[in-house]
């Protein structure tokens, strides 16, 4: 029997525990439908009321995981992904104005100080984010040889590993906080080797993608054993929490990786570039949430909606800026890039604004500060803007009437 843990989140929903369990547990397949079985022979006389059968019948299947069960080496994660705070979804009536959605997403998500900076803003505004976790950040440096990448030696990574065991424990607590507050944990995969490098995701086969993704799920599940944590407080989720991804450098053979994404339960992909318009589903049934091309402030130039790309255009190709005055100008341009795009969409198509960024200290941290300021001011300025995760946006899209959704998609590209 799996050990049991007391999950704090359950106290908040204790009155509705039966409903919660019913919502998250798969139904049993062991029940035979009426009329499907052959007629049974006459039964033996029923036992006396005070007698008990000798043993429980063997259904031949393992029991379904239950709330309170834990999995992973060391018992560091819940066997089921526990419920998050409710996300309000109202289907639109024909012709009704949709909310203005904004998705702020982070590639890597390993820096403790930056995590808390963004969480302060989220707590103050109600914004929700998508954290695309680089799974190697859940693997301590001393365990790095457990990671394998085709075309590289075991233990190699283009972005390093998780640091010390304490670093990984702290990161686990950060993601516990994020999940319990309604943010999304997605994946940015592992070694982050891009085109022209050995082991690049450009060359991944379907089997390679499956191996990469399975390892990222495993390193999350096994964080307790890998950090030597003997009595962990299990995370309220496990590796199956990933519902979408952004690939390293936006690369990878879509026909190789998308079937794997579907097999692992994904509902969307955020690895493409595209137009500033309402999203559509691809031929694999995944929502395609691309990074659109945005105008970079008042420079007269454009770039995809990712911090490094905006940085390159805003700085005329100089990406090592440290002068405070120049850093302030990069911050202004990045803030204006986001606010101008949001204003245009809000007043026209209402196409979701999708923003991707890293937690790197580009231009004295200009993008970190500009994005936090943008979230704060946009929330205050626009009454029906909703900062949501990709998973929440996918849920909202799924809940709409197909004809209503088609009308939104027919609005075309947002121009401004």
Put the structure in a nutshell:
It contains 12 helices and 13 strands. The protein is α/β, with parallel strands linked by helices. Strand 4 (130-133), helix 4 and strand 5 form a beta-alpha-beta unit.
Tally of DSSP helical segments: 12
- Which strand-content bin applies to the residues? 5-15%
Poorly predicted sequence stretches spanning 5 or more consecutive residues: 1-55
End-to-end Cα distance? 60 Å
Strand pairing plus helix content: what structural class?
Answer: alpha/beta
Taken in chain order, the helices and strands follow as HHEEEHEHEHHHEEEEEEHHEHEHH
Helical amount: 25-40%
SSE topology:
Elements lengths: L8 H4 L4 H8 L45 E2 L5 E2 L21 E9 L3 H14 L4 E4 L31 H16 L3 E4 L18 H16 L1 H4 L27 H10 L4 E2 L3 E2 L5 E2 L5 E2 L2 E5 L6 E3 L2 H8 L9 H23 L6 E5 L8 H16 L3 E3 L2 H10 L2 H8 L7
What does this structure look like?
- The chain has 416 residues and is of the alpha/beta class.
- The protein is 33% helix and 11% strand.
- The protein is built from twelve helices and 13 strands.
- Strands 3, 4, 5, 12 and 13 form a five-stranded parallel beta sheet that branches. It has a three-stranded mixed beta sheet with strand order 6-9-8, with helices on one face. The chain has a three-stranded mixed beta sheet with strand order 7-10-11.
- The longest helix is centred in the last third of the chain and has 23 residues, at 324-346.
- The model is unreliable at 1-55 (pLDDT under 50).
